[in-house]
Structure formats: structure tokens, C-alpha cells
């Protein structure tokens, strides 16, 4: 077990008039208990073993090392979902600067993500006799659903959406690693609409 001493009120009291600030619930110093788990993970490309160190406050008896390794592996599904939410649905580009409107946009993107995921789960994916298995292109299905869902939500429109989505597929390539080029983007301001 390790011990961390955390000081109270080491942050600015108010950043802006729109930012909500929460208070620290503990006394001046609080005890945070955690354990360090060192897990060996084999890299499928190079075949070398790498070590990952996980910090957790989960119980040692309920969550031994093999179970912690499974939990670490499961988080990649969550990370890929957040990547789809941020980049495919455009959740990193906000149209407002006020906190409550940004929160509203995040909820709208999450609802759209859930809708697209459910429709993708119902669509037919034609499997070709190829090296890879195929899944539906999430970004194209977002655009198709966004365009088609505005007109009507009848059964014929839904079947049309399913047929159109199943045309756009991408292969699943396991073990693929591409270098990520991330640019920091500021909120998009639409002041030209005022004029």
C-alpha cells in the first residue's frame, strides 16, 4: 500500500463566471490508498514483452493480477468508443463557449453515438471471401443517419438507411498501429452569423 497526502484548495477559486467549481470534501490532508500492479503484456508485432504498471484502489482478493489484466484489455473498447465520439461525430469541435451549451452538445453527441451504434448492430455486413472480416464504416454511417433521419423515421426510411449503410464497409486489421497526428483545436466561433 502507498500513501498520498493531498493538500486542500491548491487551485484557483473561480476561473470564470460560467465555470462551476466543486469544493474538496476532505480535511487538510487525506489518505488515499492504492496498490501498484505490474502486468506483462506481449506485443503482437515485435513479439517482445512489455511491462505496464497499473495503479488501482480495487481490493486485492476480488481483483487479482489476471483479472486486472482482463480489465486493462477491456478498456480499449471504451477508448475506441471515445475516439469515435470525438473524431467521427465531431465532439471536439463545439459551437458554443458557454458551459451549459457545451454540456448540451456533449449529450447530443452521445445520443447520436448510441443511435448510430444500435443501427449499425442491426445492419447486414456482407462478408467477402477475403483475408479480413469487414465491419461497417462508422463515420459514413454517422453521416448517412444524420442526413436521412431528419426527413422521416418510418420503417421504409429505416430499411433504406440499413441498405445504404451496408454498402460502406472497412476491413478489420488486428494488431495494426498507426502513428497518431493530433492537433489541438480551439472552440469554433460562429460570429459571422451575427453580422
Topology:
Layout: E1 2-5, E2 31-42, E3 49-56, H1 65-88, H2 99-122, E4 134-136, H3 138-148, H4 155-165, E5 169-171
Antiparallel strand pairs: 1-2, 2-3, 4-5
Helix pairs in contact: 2-3, 3-4
InterPro entries: RNaseH-like_sf, Transposase_11
Organism: Lactobacillus amylovorus
Domain Transposase IS4-like: 25-114
Entry summary:
With 195 residues, the protein is an alpha+beta fold. The chain has helices spanning 65-88, 99-122, 138-148, 155-165; strands at 2-5, 31-42, 49-56, 134-136, 169-171. It folds into two domains: 2-63, no CATH class; 85-193, no CATH class.
How would you describe the overall organization of this protein?
- The chain has 195 residues and is an alpha+beta fold.
- It has two domains: 62 residues, no CATH class; 109 residues, no CATH class.
- It is 36% helix and 15% strand.
- The chain contains four helices and five strands.
- The strands form two sheets. It has a three-stranded antiparallel beta sheet with strand order 1-2-3.
- Strand 2 and strand 3 form a beta hairpin.
- Helix 2 crosses helix 3 and helix 3 packs antiparallel against helix 4.
- It is extended, with a radius of gyration of 23 Å.
- It starts with a strand and ends in a 24-residue tail after the last strand.
- 5% of the residues are buried.
- The mean pLDDT is 80.
Amino acid at each position: 500500500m502507498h500513501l498520498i497526502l493531498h493538500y486542500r484548495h491548491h487551485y484557483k477559486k473561480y476561473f470564470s463566471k460560467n465555470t462551476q467549481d466543486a469544493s474538496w470534501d476532505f480535511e487538510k490532508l487525506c489518505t488515499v490508498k492504492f496498490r501498484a500492479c505490474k502486468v506483462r503484456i506481449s506485443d503482437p508485432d515485435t513479439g517482445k514483452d512489455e511491462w505496464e504498471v497499473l495503479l488501482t484502489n480495487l481490493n486485492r482478493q476480488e481483483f487479482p493480477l489476471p483479472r486486472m489484466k482482463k480489465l486493462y484489455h477491456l478498456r480499449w473498447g471504451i477508448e475506441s468508443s471515445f475516439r469515435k465520439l470525438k473524431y467521427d461525430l465531431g465532439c471536439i469541435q463545439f459551437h458554443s463557449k458557454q458551459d451549459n451549451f457545451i454540456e448540451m452538445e456533449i449529450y447530443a453527441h452521445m445520443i447520436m453515438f448510441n443511435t448510430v451504434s444500435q443501427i449499425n448492430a442491426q445492419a447486414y455486413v456482407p462478408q467477402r471471401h477475403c483475408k479480413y472480416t469487414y465491419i461497417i464504416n462508422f463515420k459514413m454511417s454517422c453521416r448517412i443517419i444524420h442526413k436521412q433521419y431528419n426527413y422521416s423515421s418510418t420503417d421504409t426510411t429505416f430499411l433504406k438507411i440499413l441498405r445504404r449503410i451496408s454498402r460502406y464497409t472497412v476491413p478489420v486489421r488486428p494488431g495494426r498501429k498507426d502513428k497518431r497526428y493530433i492537433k489541438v483545436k480551439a472552440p469554433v466561433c460562429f460570429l459571422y452569423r451575427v453580422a
